[in-house]
Amino acid sequence: MKKILTALCATLLAAAAFAQAALPAVEGEVRKIDTEAKKITLRHGDIPNLEMAGMTMVFRVKDPELLGKVKPGDKVRFTADKVDGALTVLSIEPEPAS
Predict the structure, then answer these.
(1) Alpha-carbon distance 38 to 62, whole Å?
(2) How many angstroms separate the Cα of 93 from the Cα of each of 5, 30, 69, 98?
(3) How wide is the angle at C-alpha 22 spanned by C-alphas 16 and 26, nearest 5°?
(4) What are the φ and ψ backbone dihedral angles of 38, each rounded to 5 degrees?
(5) What is the 3-state secondary structure (H, E, C) of 48-92?
(6) Are 42 and 59 contacting, i.e. CB atoms less than 8 angstroms apart?
(7) Could you report the per-residue pLDDT of 35-62, keeping only the tens digit for each?
(8) What is the separation of C-alpha 75 from the centre of its chain, rounded to a whole number of angstroms?
(9) Phi, psi (5° rounding) for residue 8?
């Protein structure tokens, strides 16, 4: 029984990691950062996994430390998904300067 439970836990963890890795990276531009509210406003391209067309909108961030990686005006690549019913940025990186 213990082996089955261990195998089940390992499978669930692997599935969660795969789901995270499968999210598409989306191009965007930071418009505003609200560290107190743990939110970021992004002008973004299409987000296929959310079936969302490009627009400017506010996202919650999964980890508030993500907000320290970028500043308004930065071009970025990010991943987003629905977490507990809210659109949430899961990762974000500034685009390298060209």
Answers:
(1) 8
(2) 37, 11, 7, 15
(3) 130
(4) 60, 50
(5) HHHCECCEEEEEEECCHHHHHHCCCCCEEEEEEEEECCEEEEEEE
(6) yes
(7) 999 999 999 999 999 999 999 999 999 9
(8) 15
(9) -65, -45
